[in-house]
Amino acid sequence: MALARRLSGVLPPPLVTDWIRRTRFKTELQSSNFALVTHSKVSMASPTGPTAVDKEQIFGMAEKEMEYRVELFNKLTHSCFNKCVDKRYKESELNMGENSCIDRCVSKYWHVTNLIGQLLGSGRPPM
């Protein structure tokens, strides 16, 4: 609910609020699973396993990535909600037009985000 208030200044209908609550990213790392994955990568470089500095760097990078993903999700939610949902709520549920608009908006947002990531990763200048 706080996320919805911060994004639009008004509370969205219950269906949107439930959707936000269900799809909210967890900001906590599951350290045991993460350590297993990173241990196999680090152990190739060091036969004794990851050092404390290596672990700290790995968790720092994972924290940054989680912050980026949460920020990306918040921007996506804000952008598509403002674009697709009428400011004056007539119904408690999204109508068919709003549903399809949100679906297209999310699809375009992810497509463009992936395209930008590929361009930045390849080192090519933008077109």
TrEMBL record:
Record-annotated Tim10-like domain positions: 60-120
Gene Ontology biological-process annotations: protein insertion into mitochondrial inner membrane; protein transport
Transmembrane segments: none
Signal sequence coordinates: none
UniProt-listed InterPro entries: Tim10-like (IPR004217)
Cellular localization per UniProt: Mitochondrion
GO cellular component terms, A-Z: mitochondrial inner membrane
Molecular function terms, GO-annotated: metal ion binding
Cited Pfam families: zf-Tim10_DDP
UniProt keyword annotations, A-Z: Disulfide bond, Metal-binding, Mitochondrion, Protein transport, Translocation, Transport, Zinc
Keyword flag Protein transport: yes
Family from the record: Belongs to the small Tim family.
Name of the protein: Mitochondrial import inner membrane translocase subunit TIM10
Gene this protein is translated from: TIM10
